[in-house]
């Protein structure tokens, strides 16, 4: 019998990968494996013979198992060596030129990220009209007729369409959403807005993102938690925030939020990015919400401002100049 196992060892030593699999099955196969059958036959032997034969078979079992493992390892190493030789990189080859591909502009790409971040917090995504009536852009938001924002110096009025303007903020979406939904509610609305400003940190057209949350037990603490969590995720790093009181007709109390940004020379500066606060009872009432039962907070921030902080961009006008050297950095 030992001669037979010696023969198996010699077969294993010279077998290729396929032959090795066949030999393993012939020796250790459950149904007709040679060693399996030999072990089964132990039951027919006497006690002394069974003990002696069992010890012998166990030795051969360990020996054959190790031989198969060694041979398999040798074959794998040989295969890897062959690949290393045949798949070597030829550094003299001329590779084809990379084809330029398009990508989303920085702003719509970031808007998608904002929608995803606040969407995970349970906020609906709403849309608002860019040409808006003064009723929804100002009056229902508790902005009085003598407010500076209604002056021709700040607002674009539509010629030949009296009482309509290019919206100065996305807050008009708050009212339309409140009118078409019932409390409690969570809503965010991204979009373009228009104001007569133009310098390194302002543009006549820019993008805002409005947020609204209404429930029975809402406080400034809820607003601060939502905003700091969302903005930290969007910026992708820890950012220092500064909350200070501010006046907005549609919230009471009102807050302004600054984030620490970098100047071109590497020094720090505080950049205002968010106006927010608890919703004014008059605005809730104008949206069809009972202020004696429901409370809420609202916030609006500039998309470009956040991008300037995230990527340390010093001039907002770079987003609109169409310079591929600038835009190509954000592929």
Major sheet, described briefly?
A: 7 strands, mixed
SSE series: HHHHHEEHEHEEHEEEHEHH
Task: Tell me the CATH topology of the largest domain.
Answer: BirA Bifunctional Protein, domain 2
Q: If strands are numbered along the chain, what order do they take across the biggest sheet? A: 1-4-5-9-8-7-6
Shape assignment: elongated
Tell me the name of the CATH homologous superfamily of the largest domain.
Bira Bifunctional Protein, Domain 2
Count of runs of 4 or more consecutive helical residues: 11
How much helicity do the residues have? 40-55%
Uncertain segments:
none
Q: Count all strands and give the number.
A: 9
Rg, alpha carbons: 37 Å
User: Strand content of the residues, in percent?
Assistant: 15-25%
Which CATH class of the largest domain applies here?
Answer: Alpha Beta
CATH architectural label of the largest domain: 2-Layer Sandwich
What's the pLDDT, averaged over the residues? 84
Distance between the termini: 71 Å
Classification by helices and strands: alpha+beta
Number of domains: 2
């Amino acid at each position: 019998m030992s001669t037979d196992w010696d023969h198996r060892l010699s077969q294993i030593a010279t077998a290729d990968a396929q032959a090795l699999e066949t030999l393993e099955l012939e020796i250790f196969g459950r149904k007709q494996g040679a060693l399996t059958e030999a072990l089964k036959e132990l039951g027919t032997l006497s006690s002394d013979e069974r003990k002696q034969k069992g010890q012998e078979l166990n030795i051969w079992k360990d020996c054959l198992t190790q031989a198969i493992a060694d041979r398999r390892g040798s074959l794998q190493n040989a295969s890897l060596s062959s690949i290393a030789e045949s798949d070597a990189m030829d550094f003299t080859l001329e590779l084809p030129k990379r084809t330029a591909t398009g990508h989303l502009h920085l702003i719509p790409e970031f808007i998608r990220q904002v929608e995803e971040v606040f969407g995970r917090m349970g906020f609906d995504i709403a849309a608002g009209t860019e040409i808006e009536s003064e009723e929804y852009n100002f009056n229902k938001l508790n902005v009085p007729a003598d407010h500076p924002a209604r002056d021709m110096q700040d607002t674009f009025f539509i010629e030949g369409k009296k009482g309509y303007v290019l919206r100065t903020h996305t807050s008009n979406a708050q009212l339309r959403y409140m009118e078409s939904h019932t409390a409690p509610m969570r809503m965010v609305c991204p979009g373009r807005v228009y104001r007569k400003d133009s310098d390194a940190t302002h543009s006549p057209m820019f993008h805002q993102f409005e947020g609204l949350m209404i429930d029975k037990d809402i406080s400034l603490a809820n607003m601060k938690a939502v905003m700091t969590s969302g903005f930290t995720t969007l910026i992708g790093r820890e950012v220092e925030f500064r909350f200070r009181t501010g006046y907005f007709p549609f919230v009471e109390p009102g807050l302004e939020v600054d984030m620490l940004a970098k100047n071109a020379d590497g020094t720090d500066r505080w950049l205002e990015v968010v106006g927010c606060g608890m919703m004014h009872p008059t605005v809730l009432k104008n949206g069809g919400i009972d202020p004696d039962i429901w409370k809420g907070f609202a916030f609006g921030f500039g998309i470009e401002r956040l991008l300037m902080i995230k990527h340390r961009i010093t001039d907002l006008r770079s987003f609109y100049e169409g310079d591929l050297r600038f835009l190509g950095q954000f592929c």
